[in-house]
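Input/output pair, single chain:
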Amino acid sequence: MGAVDTTYTFTATDTITSTKMNNIIDQTTITTDAIIGTTLEVASGKLKVRAQGITSNELATNAVTATNITNGSVTPAKLSSGGPSWSGTGAGGVFGVPQTGLEFGTGHTQDFNCFIDLHTAATPTDFETRIVRDGGANGNFRVLNNGTGNIQLTSAGGVVMNNAGGVTFGTANMPTPSGSAPIYGTRAWANFNGQANSDLSGTYTRTASTTVTITATAHGLIVGNRVFLDFTVGTGTAPFDGVYEVATVTDANTFTVVSSVTTTSTGSVALRRKTIRGSGNISCVSAAMASPVVPPTSNQALDSGYFILNFSTAMPNVNFAVSGVVNELGQLTSSSGNKALSGFAFNEKCAYISTLSFGSTNVNCLHNNVTVIG
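Output:
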């Protein structure tokens, strides 16, 4: 069979007419003998492009341009082996590459900064987080995190920092230690004046219950702290003066303690405190007395040389160590020089300390330096 089928066969005696010729033209169909290769096929006597029949052999170089590709029609399966893959779109999308390395800025012949920006906000700025390597062989490596979130490094095996130059916090450098013995940091510290007072004044109410509500601006206390309260009655019968444990903290200006009696009363109160020159994680140094009963069942009086360190943030447990040195008058003499300081953990929120002379007499010292480690 030929490449076409005219659907009419002339005999030796046929007369060629215009009608017969027109019919041949109108009724002629293509046969499969007209097909060479796999690009085309015959369907109902007509030629058409076979499904997946066009390959790179049929395309001219650079024949397909970006304008000829429908937006969003390229999928990972259409890319070469080893190409990137992706799934989903927007915030739920994931982009992955099978290669184990990713390089930025290769091929340049001058110094320049290289960075990666992360965008995570519904209303993004220039970046939410930027990872930067400054230009040059000795450029800084920087992580810039906008907003108030932390930069956290978490590892079950710990975080190792190898740096001969130490680590700088703000503008202060912590040198790299030698050896492999572990380093334990100070959890709290204070330098306070045991001879000077920084009392905090407030008001109190107690309404037919043991709960005493105290209002004192910026008290700085947390539940479990212990404070010496000196009450002045306004109405009713005042709670007993002495050491109380903070039961609840309503806000920065209000807290409660539990008293030993239930009488209704209102009035003023003074939180007896010592003057802090400098401290870390210690909200206040409360004046105290020897062997306080908490809550007091009678009025208690302050004793020299007894104090309570109240932590701003609680210790992880009560097994911390308290150490320090004191000096009574700021003089290095045999009669008024260094005294002894002792202390112990009462709970995770506070520690008791006492300062005494070498004759075992408790004294209020001018210089008290205390460190809590744990």
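The mean pLDDT is 87. Helices lie at 18-27.
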